[in-house]
């Protein structure tokens, strides 16, 4: 019996095969494709062909993806969202989308409204619902809305009003993606509301990734139980993933942390997962990802659902480099999966960090002729800024001034030097380029409980 783990990044798709004793049989890396499904198919076919296993013995298939994270960071492929908050008059002083980055808000916010309702902390009603307010709002947006988010005051204590409003919304808008905040986050209306909004905005991305994985398995004749990694490193099924794509945010680094621990045998370290679009930093504490104890910021938005303690920065192998020597701009834009077409080392015209490290003799020695015309002094200045960004990111994840070990994962880690300030030892374990896929294949279960005292 085998299990296969796949991680779909913005640039590369990794796949690995583990046997029944969790021994890594083989791992591969292929370019991510625009339609997701093709990249997953290519990775699966390659890992099966090269490992020469009988694909009928694959009983479990696990997928982890950073597509939702990348969509928010890059402000791309997001649905517009109509926000309904049940909290008038209690929450009129603070409106939905408050403190959001302006560019993300412009991309997502279609309209928002505060309607009568809400609960006290013990479940008693603050105010009754008013159906007319909801109906009028839905009629106003019905020709242009793509998804809806609903939040209510203390909805995790009593979800009845959120469910009632959702029923009214469906009567007018039909089968539209709706996110209820009580199903997304915990106590704390603004952060919980933000999570519901982001979940609705990711509906299209989540569906594309989920169905793409399912089709890729069918096309290869693999009859396996399908699971998706969520942000605490555990698994969820296909239907759950399409309904709650927000829970895949953070799964990439969580899988990398679990994979890094499994491969390196290190129990306490910082894990730096460098892809082609973003870099994620997490903390390995006693062999497990350190969970965030504060509201987690995703793309500049505060949320409060369970998440690993992660820092995501727009610094990776495909990160674009712009500007003159005295005004260098690094990222957050990335060529992503187009790196093999757009990067200079592959014959393109876009300057990326992969081109910079190639010029500095750190990678792709066979392609160095493509970067002969790059100015070495300029590349040195760019790389100095890269090191400063990495050291600053590492410093943000540390809880003391002591040096710590750094475990590198991901193919983009070619941009990371062997020495960094605050790091005692840089570790590149076996199969480190596919650590995220290996972490996904390990498979874990979880549960959570919340109480109001």
UniProtKB/TrEMBL annotation:
Domain Hydantoinase/oxoprolinase N-terminal: 3-172
Taxonomic superkingdom: Bacteria
Domain called Hydantoinase A/oxoprolinase: residue spans: 192-361
GO molecular function: hydrolase activity
UniProt name for this protein: Hydantoinase/oxoprolinase
Natural source organism: Clostridioides difficile NAP08
Organism taxonomic ancestry: Bacteria, Bacillati, Bacillota, Clostridia, Peptostreptococcales
């Amino acid at each position: 019996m085998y299990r296969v783990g796949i991680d779909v990044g913005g640039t590369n798709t990794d796949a690995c095969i583990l046997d029944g004793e969790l021994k890594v049989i083989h791992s591969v890396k292929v370019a991510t494709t625009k339609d997701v499904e093709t990249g997953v198919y290519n990775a699966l076919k390659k890992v099966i062909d090269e490992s020469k296993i009988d694909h009928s013995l694959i009983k479990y298939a696990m997928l982890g993806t950073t597509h939702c994270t990348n969509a928010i960071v890059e402000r791309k492929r997001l649905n517009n969202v109509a926000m309904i908050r049940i909290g008038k008059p209690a929450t009129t002083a603070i409106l939905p989308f408050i403190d959001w980055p302006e560019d993300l808000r412009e991309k997502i916010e279609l309209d928002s409204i505060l309607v009568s309702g809400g609960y006290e902390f013990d479940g008693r009603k603050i105010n009754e619902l008013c159906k007319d307010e909801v109906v009028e709002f839905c009629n106003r947006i019905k020709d242009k809305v793509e998804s809806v988010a609903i939040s209510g005051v203390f909805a995790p204590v009593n979800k009845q009003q959120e469910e009632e409003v959702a029923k009214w919304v469906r009567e007018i808008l039909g089968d539209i993606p709706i996110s209820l905040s009580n199903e997304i986050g915990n106590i704390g209306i603004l952060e919980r509301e933000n999570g519901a909004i982001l979940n609705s905005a990711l509906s299209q991305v989540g569906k594309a990734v989920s169905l793409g994985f399912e089709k890729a398995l069918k096309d290869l004749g693999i009859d396996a139980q399908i699971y998706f990694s969520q942000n605490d490193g555990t698994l969820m099924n296909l239907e759950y993933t399409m309904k709650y794509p927000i829970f895949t945010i953070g799964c990439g680094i969580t899988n990398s942390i679990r994979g890094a621990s499994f491969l390196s045998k290190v129990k306490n370290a910082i894990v730096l997962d460098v892809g082609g679009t973003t870099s994620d930093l997490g903390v390995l504490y006693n062999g497990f990802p350190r969970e965030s104890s504060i509201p987690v910021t995703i793309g500049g938005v505060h949320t409060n659902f369970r998440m690993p303690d992660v820092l995501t920065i727009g610094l990776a192998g495909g990160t674009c480099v712009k500007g003159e020597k005295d005004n260098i701009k690094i990222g957050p834009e990335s060529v992503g999966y187009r790196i093999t077409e757009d990067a200079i080392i592959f014959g393109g015209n876009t300057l990326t960090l992969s081109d910079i490290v190639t010029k500095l003799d750190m990678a792709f020695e066979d392609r160095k002729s493509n970067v002969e015309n790059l100015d070495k002094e300029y590349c040195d200045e760019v790389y100095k800024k890269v090191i400063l960004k990495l050291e600053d990111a590492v410093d943000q994840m540390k809880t003391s001034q002591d040096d710590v070990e750094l475990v590198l994962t991901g193919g983009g880690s070619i941009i990371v030097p062997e020495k960094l300030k605050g790091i005692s030892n840089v570790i590149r374990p076996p199969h480190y380029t596919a650590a995220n896929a290996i972490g996904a294949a390990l498979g874990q279960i979880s549960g959570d409980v919340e109480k109001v005292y």
